[in-house]
Every structure is written in structure tokens, then in C-alpha cells.
Design a protein that fits this description.
Chain B: GO terms for molecular function: ammonium channel activity. The structure holds two protein chains of two kinds. Chain A is of the alpha+beta class. Helices cover 23% and strands 37% of the residues of chain A. The relative contact order of chain A is 0.31. Chain B has one domain: Ammonium transporter AmtB like domains (Ammonium transporter fold), CATH 1.10.3430. In chain B, α4 packs antiparallel against α6, α8 runs parallel beside α10 and α10 runs antiparallel to α12. Classes of the chains: A alpha+beta, B mainly alpha.
């Protein structure tokens, strides 16, 4: 199994959700997050005093998938999240040892 | 405003219901400026000191009103004593004034004049508070307001507007308070912050305004109330001067807002909300002394010059290293000085007074008088305010402890916070005070029908 994590712009959430549903993903977890990438945040000016706002709002989407689906799913997320502008975010995957469905105790791919 | 000069030629001056009504409305408008100022300032501070900022303005409504009744009106507008102060025992406690007694040759009752001028006395110390954001003990501030209006505002109001006051007799033009209100408050702000020092983290920590909508709301209320401040300062409107003042107020404010925005677009790349609000206030400040002397085109010039210079001036605190938190010096002192001096250039002669400025053939005469007025009020207020702050600081300490300043002045000074961030239902707040009778247990609460729903 793989855990796909995407940290993306908040306003892309709906598109990503729809793309994942179309792909057949059953569930996902969304968290509000903040952070910055290489371009850093933005600058605000108050009466000439400039403030650099480093941490900009993001959302973090996490999905557990079977190994075979991981690559394709990453592509789906990337395509749905992309605006072409700076700050579009990142998507990555990590291997997962175990997953358990809490209600039934099912393990592995059955738990997804 | 010139007490002592009557605008009516009639031998017998009678109470004018129209002027009296007009002045009562103007007084109410000026009163609204103080809560407006509270929100203008309150939005500019960080979340943790919002309430303290609001309260520093609001308390002035309480303290100054009472002092005004007790002795303030007498000190400012009583019979002249040596050109520097007033005193009339009839005015003490406002006790010896008949309800139909008219003010000094005008068509309005003394009481109306007293209440109108009271509103000026209230907002002037409140203006100072913007420079002291986040760090001054509330009791020390209340004491400062009490002493400051007594030894600075009341005398200066007498100099500038009181019949026999030395600046008034010299012919300094201050229609509605450029020197007595704005230069006075701005110089006092500078005097106090030189004594108390900078906020913890000044120039290091971000100190962004927490609510620009509040700032805009406050600026809007100030703009609205300022019509009373300026148009009311002729103490009537049966000869059109009040209307000139109203018009010039609007014109200069608009010009100053546009000038500030243009400057910051060129200098910093954006038209900011705070810039629009600040530019408007700078224009209001600058037209205050000048509005009864300049033409509508002159008002555009006064506003635009003030907007530009104040926008440039607010950066000085970072260069020079004094922490004028919310730019009282950059906006009120600089704006007041600019407006007062521009009277010496743009006075057309023939509206408020016959005095003409440099551009209208009046030579340097009026400009020189204006400069004397500016310098005298600035120097007096700066020195005495610094002394007062020094004495209060020695006696009781002006500042809250550093830890309290960092954690937020609202909680330590007022036992409140401006906003509830505890999540849905405000669940994290727990009640520690003794519960009201009937709330000590569920059964008691159920039996007691008086429990608040």
C-alpha cells in the first residue's frame, strides 16, 4: 500500500476531490495546513512598512491506495491541482506497512 | 473659531433656533469622532491589545467630561487672565450660567458652546493614545489624561480660541483645531514616547494591523463626524461660512486620500486600504485650521500636499527609531503643521477673516503668525507632556511589565479579550467566579425562575 500526500492550494480542493472520486477512491483525509516552498510567501505593505508573510494557507490531502494504483493516482491529483502558477504545491507517496479498518478489524487492501 | 467676534450686525442678538439646532447636531457629530477614532486605532493594533486601544479613547469621554464641568470650561473659555489662561467662577461646575444666556455675541446658548467645545477636549487626548499602543498601564493613562487636559489642553485652547488668548489676539488662524487639537496631540505623543520608549519587538516582530475593516469603519466615522468638527466651528450657519467649511472638508479629504494612494502606488506598488484611510485622516487634519480661509481649489492643494507629506512622514519612525505605534506624529502632527502653515500661503481673505496668504498678495505676514502658533503649541505640548509622562513614570510606572506586554495588554489591564477564538461554542472558557445564587446546582437552577435565559 501507499500513502499519497498532496499539499496544494486550498481552492483546488473541489477539483481534486472530484477527480479522486472519478478515479474510484473511496475515502480521503483533508487537513488545513500552512507552509512555503522555494518562492516563499508574499509581501504585505502597511503604511510603507513591509511584512513578509512566509507561511501561506494550504490544504493537505491524504489517500491510502494499493501499490498498483499509486502512480496513476499521483498523476490524477497533480493534474487536478495544477494552476500553472507559483505555489501549486507538492504530491508524494510513501510505503505503508499496515492499515486497519477500525470498525471491522480488516487489514491490508481490504481495509481501504 | 473666534469667540468675541460677532457675525451679526444687529444691536440686539437673539437666540437662533436654527443655529442652536445646527450646533447641537454638530456637537453630536464631534462626539461620534471619539468612538470612530477608537475603531480607527483599534483595528491597527494586534488582536491582543484591541480592547485597550478602544478603551484609551473611550475613557476620555468619561474623564474629560467631568473635568470640563468642574473647571475645564472655565480654564479654557473663562475671562482672560494674562493672555494665557481663562477663569470665570460662574463657569465652575457650569453653575452660574442661565439656560437662555448666549455665548459671547453669538446666537447660541452658552451651554451649547460648552458642549460643542467639550467634544474637542475629549478627542484631543484620545488622539495621543495611538502612539502608546500595547504598553501603557490603564491607570497611568487615565492619570495622564487628567493632568494633560488640565495643564496642556485647557490653556492651549484658551491661547488659540479664548477671547484674550495670546495666539488669538495675535491673529493666528486656527479655524477648528489644527494647532489646539492636532499639533497639540501630535507633539504630546512625541513627548510621551520619548519618555516611555518602544514596544517590545519594535522593528523585529511583525505588528500588522489585525483588522483593516475596523480601520476603515473608524476612518469613515471620523470623516462623517469631522463635518461637525469643522462646519460647526463658526458657531452658526446664517452667513454661509459653515457651508464653506463643510465643502472644503470634503474636498481636502478626497484630495489627500488620492495623494496618499498615488504615493504608495509609486513607492510600494499597491493601493492599500490603510493608505486610503490614513490619507483621508491626514486631509481632515490639514483642512481643519485652513478650511475657513481657502478656496475650493486651495482645499485641493492643502489636502494633496498633506496627503503626500504625511505618507512620507510615517516612514520616519523606522529611520529615526522612535516608536510612534500608530503614526500620531506622522498623521496628526505633520498634518496639523502642514495645514496651519498652508493657511499662510492659501488664505484668500474674505471668508473667515481678511487675512491673505502669500499666494493672494498678503505677503509673509500671515505665514509668520501661523509659524509662531505652530511652534508655540508644538514646543509647549512636547515639553510639558514629556514632563508629565516622566513624573507619572517615576510615581507609578507608565508601562505594563514586559511579560504582560508580550502576552497582551487586554488580559492584564481589562480582564477581557476582544475575540473568542476558542472554537465552536466557546468551549474552552471555564467559569471560576462564584456562581450566582440558584446556579450552584442543577436543581437550584431549575427552581430559580430568575436565571438568565
Amino acid at each position: 500500500m501507499k500513502l499519497i500526500t498532496a499539499v496544494v492550494k486550498p481552492h483546488r480542493l473541489d477539483e481534486i476531490k472530484e477527480a479522486l472520486q472519478a478515479f474510484g477512491v473511496q475515502g480521503l483525509t483533508v487537513t488545513e495546513a500552512s507552509g512555503y516552498g522555494r518562492q516563499r510567501g508574499h509581501t504585505e505593505v502597511y503604511r510603507g512598512a513591509e511584512y513578509t508573510v512566509d507561511l501561506v494557507p494550504k490544504i493537505r490531502i491524504e489517500v491510502l491506495v494499493e501499490d498498483g494504483d499509486a502512480e496513476e493516482l499521483i498523476e490524477v491529483v497533480v493534474k487536478a491541482a495544477r494552476t500553472g502558477k507559483i505555489g501549486d504545491g507538492k504530491v508524494w507517496s510513501v510505503p505503508v506497512d499496515t492499515a486497519v479498518r477500525v470498525r471491522t478489524g480488516e487489514r491490508g487492501p481490504d481495509a481501504l | 473659531m473666534p469667540p468675541g467676534i460677532t457675525t451679526l450686525a444687529a444691536d440686539k442678538i437673539e437666540l437662533s433656533a436654527a443655529n442652536t439646532g445646527f450646533m447641537l447636531i454638530c456637537s453630536a457629530l464631534v462626539m461620534l469622532m471619539t468612538p470612530g477614532l477608537a475603531f480607527f486605532y483599534g483595528g491597527m493594533v494586534r488582536v491582543k491589545s484591541t480592547l485597550n486601544m478602544l478603551m484609551m479613547s473611550f475613557i476620555s469621554l468619561g474623564i474629560v467630561t467631568i473635568l470640563w464641568v468642574l473647571y475645564g470650561f472655565s480654564l479654557a473659555f473663562g475671562a482672560d487672565v494674562g493672555s494665557v489662561i481663562g477663569w470665570s467662577s460662574d463657569y465652575v461646575g457650569l453653575s452660574g450660567i442661565g439656560i437662555t444666556e448666549l455665548w459671547d455675541g453669538y446666537t447660541i446658548p452658552v451651554y451649547v458652546f460648552a458642549v460643542f467645545q467639550l467634544m474637542f477636549a475629549i478627542i484631543t487626548p484620545a488622539l495621543i493614545s495611538g502612539a502608546l499602543a500595547d504598553r501603557v498601564k490603564f491607570t497611568a493613562w487615565a492619570l495622564f489624561v487628567t493632568l494633560w487636559v488640565t495643564v496642556v489642553y485647557f490653556p492651549v485652547a484658551h491661547w488659540v480660541w479664548g477671547s484674550g488668548g495670546w495666539l488669538f489676539e495675535m491673529g493666528v488662524i486656527d479655524f477648528a483645531g489644527g494647532t489646539a487639537v492636532h499639533i497639540n496631540a501630535g507633539a504630546a505623543a512625541l513627548g510621551v514616547i520619548l519618555v516611555i520608549g518602544k514596544r517590545v519587538g519594535f522593528k523585529k516582530d511583525p505588528m500588522r494591523p489585525h483588522s483593516l475593516p475596523l480601520v476603515m469603519l473608524g476612518a469613515g466615522l471620523l470623516w462623517f463626524g469631522w463635518f461637525g468638527f469643522n462646519a460647526g466651528s463658526w458657531l452658526g450657519n446664517d452667513d454661509g461660512v459653515g457651508a464653506v467649511m463643510f465643502l472644503n472638508t470634503q474636498i481636502a479629504t478626497a484630495a489627500a486620500m488620492l495623494a496618499w494612494l498615488a504615493y504608495e502606488k509609486i513607492r510600494h506598488g499597491s493601493f492599500t486600504t490603510l493608505g486610503a484611510a490614513s490619507g483621508a485622516v491626514a486631509g481632515l487634519v490639514a483642512i481643519t485650521p485652513a478650511g475657513g480661509s481657502v478656496s475650493p481649489l486651495g482645499a485641493i492643494a492643502v489636502g494633496a500636499i498633506a496627503g503626500l507629506l504625511c505618507a512620507m512622514a510615517v516612514g520616519l519612525k523606522y529611520k529615526l527609531g522612535y516608536d510612534d505605534s500608530l503614526d500620531v506624529i506622522g498623521v496628526h502632527l505633520v498634518g496639523g503643521v502642514v495645514g496651519s502653515l498652508l493657511v499662510g500661503f492659501f488664505a484668500t481673505g474674505g471668508v473667515q477673516s481678511d487675512a491673505k496668504g502669500l499666494f493672494y498678495g498678503g505677503g509673509f505676514d500671515q505665514l509668520g503668525k501661523q509659524a509662531v502658533g505652530v511652534f508655540a503649541v508644538l514646543a509647549y505640548s512636547l515639553v510639558v507632556s514629556a514632563l508629565l509622562a516622566f513624573v507619572i513614570d517615576k510615581a507609578m510606572g507608565m508601562r505594563v511589565p514586559e511579560d504582560d506586554e508580550v502576552s497582551g495588554i487586554d488580559q492584564v489591564e481589562h480582564a477581557e479579550t476582544a475575540y473568542d477564538f476558542s472554537g465552536a461554542g466557546g468551549g474552552s472558557a471555564s467559569r471560576t467566579a462564584a456562581p450566582a445564587p440558584g446556579l450552584t446546582d442543577r436543581a437550584g437552577a431549575a427552581k430559580n425562575k430568575k436565571v438568565d435565559a
